[in-house]
Amino acid sequence: MAQQLEAEKTQTTGPIKVSPLASLAFRDYRLLFIGGFFSGSANQMRQAFNLFLVYDISDSVLLVGFTGVFQVIPALTLGLFAGALADVFDRRKLLLIVNSVSMIPPLALGALLITDSIEVWHIFAFTMLTSLINIAQGPARNSLVPKLVPKSHLMNAVTLNGSLQQATFFIGPLVGGILVNAYGAGTTYILNAFLLIPSMVVLLFIRTSGKPEGEGRKVSITMVLDGMRFIVTTRILLGLYLTDFGLSSVGFFRPLLTIMAKDVYEVGPLGLGILYASPAIGAVLGFITMLWIGEVQRKGALFLVAIFFFSLGLAFLGLSQWFWMGMIAGGVLGYTDSISLVLRQTLTQLLAPDEYRGRATAFTRLFAQTGNAIGATEAGVAASFMGPGGALIFGGAIGVVIVLSVGFGWRSLWRYRSFEQ
After folding, report:
1. Nearest Cα residue to 410 out of 192, 273, 237
2. What is the rounded distance in angstroms from the CA atom of residue 61 to the CA atom of residue 307?
3. DSSP secondary structure, 89-137, as one string
4. Are 125 and 54 in contact (CB under 8 A)?
5. How many CA atoms lie within 13 A of 38 on its CB side?
């Protein structure tokens, strides 16, 4: 109750100074954060070893690529219904169900490995099942955060979540590699399933209600369409999503890093690994920057500025003829991308009423995933005609046009101020 009163008090005042770890002072958010560490690490560990297993069994790069297809299909086809689930059912209980059912795929894969009966189609099937189970997790978790911290701490909480996600990208595969080396792949999958137990235990101790506000609803196409109507009529969110979708469609640079490393910088596997690490390092620095800033009133303007410099970073990467320049460009891209991610998610949570937060979050994920899928194809096609450098410069130029168009066409996004009375 004291936490709730403090939250209500903070929400009625202007911006306050928020320390980098301020949101962790709130008990329920701290529990959700700890649970996210375990579930995120387990998920990243499993994804990395699914890819490794496919390649180890088939020795086919093409089949490795198909693994990602089976992962993204459920998200693209049913992602919006996942947002509706988060707007109908208790989000805390929904996370409990998701994490408990998520134990099935690693346990099954572990058993298949131990009995030496694993085949590639097993991995594809359980990858799709895992994705199908987990599509409800993102909207439910993100929609729960605004109820656990005051409004003034929301950007800090979102930034901490982003930092946590980056940490699990590193920790999950690393711990998985250590476990495989010590106990073998089959046992590692079994242990991976048990890593989900702490994430469920902490959810049991969260006191804040996870029930969505508003009248009782049923998951339906009508409800999904109502969520679409809300996004379209909320001009700030629509401008936000269109900007992100446009940039993702022309600025998905990661597939081109391999070509740049081999044909432009002429570096080997170690150089490629360093080049791929540079955006991750930049992203960590971006999250640290946002944690240090604490609170920003003009979130919409800063979002557009971050996207503008991301576009310039694309062009800079395309113009880079030396390896060290490519590393700097990769860092700039990771840095600006992480800042735009924090602001996009924070604005979504601030502008969407609680009864729409699940669907709004699902739309964010759908726009990002669809944009990335289109961007991967666009990058390959553009690189085949213009070379990797030309494709990156082209993407940067289009990005600048998108930012300027949204900046002038969506003045409400540029002018948006938090705590404005």
Report:
1. 237
2. 33
3. S-HHHHHHHHHHHTTHHHHHHHHHHHTT---HHHHHHHHHHHHHHHTTH
4. no
5. 22
According to DSSP, residue 51 is labeled: H
Q: Measuring CA to CA, how many Å separate 271 from each of 91, 178, 275, 279, 326?
A: 43, 24, 6, 14, 11
d(CA 123, CA 51) in angstroms, rounded, equals: 9
pLDDT, tens digit, for every residue of 384-420?
A: 788 888 888 998 999 899 988 888 877 888 888 765 4
User: Cα angle at 25 between 19 and 26, to 5 degrees?
Assistant: 125
Contact 359, 80 (CB under 8 A): yes
- For residue range 308-365, what is the model confidence (pLDDT) as tens digits? 999 999 999 989 889 889 889 999 999 999 999 888 888 888 888 888 888 888 887 7
Please report where in the chains the tokens 């096609």 appear, as a residue.
381
Rounded CA separation 225/239 (Å): 19
Q: CA 70, CA 80: separation in Å to the nearest integer?
A: 18
Q: Which domains does the chain have, with CATH numbers?
A: 2-219 (1.20.1250.20), 229-415 (1.20.1250.20)
DSSP tag of 264 = I
Between helix 61-86 and helix 27-58 the angle, nearest 10°, is 150
pLDDT of residue 5: 35
pLDDT per position as a tens digit, 44-103? 888 777 877 877 788 775 676 567 677 777 777 777 788 888 888 899 999 999 899 999
**DSSP letter (8 states) at residue 334:** H
Give the DSSP letter of residue 214.
S
Grade residue 292 by pLDDT with cuts at 50, 70 and 90.
Answer: confident
**Is the pTM value of this prediction over 0.90?**
no
Identify the residue with better confidence: 374 or 305. 305
